[in-house]
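Sample A.
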Amino acid sequence: MVNEFSPSTDNRNLEEKIVKGKTNYTLLEISGFENSSSSILAERIKLLYDKSKLICFSANMTLSLRKFLLKTGISDCITDFSPERIASYIKNLNIKPEPRPGTFVILDDNDLQKNMFNSIIKRFGYKTVFVSTTDELFEIAAEPDNIMILLNIGTAGLDLNGLVRRSYISQDIKKNPVVAYKCMDQGLFVHEIINGLNRLTKVILSPEEIYCMLTDMLFKKEITSFTNSYISSLKYEKIHTYAGKTIQQIYYENHGDPCGQESLFDKERIDSMIDSSEMIRRTLIRAEGIIWLRHSDSTQNRPTCGAGA
């Protein structure tokens, strides 16, 4: 179900118009953002986000809109949109992703950042487990399903020195990559850089950078896995030369035995290619709302990486 309301609806009356539900969506068009009050919009977004799954759409992604979405914890924003694309996007979000083996363990106490992590990671079929203390982190670090630990060193009450000391004697936390991050608005302190954190991780990222990393890494893993399955069913390595040749050249190569070439038309192979192509299509559509998190390759559009640990 998609919630509908007039843009002029007052926030006080908006709550009455929203039907709450796990599969209910609210679409919010953000237009004229540069001239609108970000505080009023942020209040509206918080109300909508608490009640339903919120998808924003805008004619284009500006730097100020990007910063606003990151600040308010909104992951889904479609640009250059059409009703058909939005309908297709919602339809695909309602399809449960293929389960993937692996859990991301995340030490963070910021609800907005936790929402972002859930939206990105679960979209590709992986699980998330959130902890808020060092004790919880080391307790769950031994779980065999873990594949990465994300560590917000700005978490309130985090004893970073104690975490580093415990990591010296714990083999469990070293089994998987540990990626540290921190909101750079809080600044970096000397002890965060020189306290031995480099034994666990080589960089301290900003939240924007870690969202970018996860979006890029998980999308590429997903799309290449399904593409590889398609290529394998097609036996592409045997026929890839067809793509660069003319029909005449193909005929002259095979004219001695034109009907003796290996067939691609057995049912199992065709079904496999259909399934793989459908999964590729779903992955592309499902990722459309978070494309903006993967910033441009241009260094001018990249956030500055946090100081090395």
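Sample B.
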Amino acid sequence: MVYKVPFFFTIFCALAIAWIGINGQAYVPTCTSALCNSIRSLEWETLTAGFFGLAGGLAVLWATRTQIASQRKAAVDLELLDIDSFISELSKGLTKLIEVTRQASENVQFDDAECAGKANMDIKEAANKIETGLLFEIDKNHRFPASLRRAARYAHENTLLVTSYRFGVTKGKMDYTIVTSTQQGLDEWAQKAFEPLDELKFERCKYSDFLMRR
């Protein structure tokens, strides 16, 4: 943007001067004012060449700045590769986990302890499948700001929180109160499941902006 506006303005000036130089005399054939005389004596070829030369210089600066920014962004993206991969994996895992929890809530029966036990197991397995290796790499990378590492941990802990909601199964019988409260708890968790991930994305963007300005 620094060079974009001056570049196009310079091109406009060059074209305007060329147009005046070529067509201007036709509009002031008999005029003798200072302005008309200036138009007739305008060395438009020299001025146009100068403006086009200036535009060329601005174009080089613009292209160089764009290339530098592109290279810097590539370097920043590489540095944040673990974060981006973690966000991608966590997003996929959360989507699947929410699907599993909702399916479990819909299928569980108050009088079917076996079904409730399976629902508990399905939720636990889905939560445990979410990637943790990248979280370890992020957590030990102290180049990342503490707020970013903390957001990554919290986003992952939020997925494990779902396992604290269990359909009550005791000695082959169902606890009716726990079934209802678990369904409500899972529904509330699902509604807010992506909030910690959104916070992680915000911290990622904030750190990325810092690296780009560095």
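B remarks: The longest strand covers residues 169-170. The longest helix spans residues 44-79.
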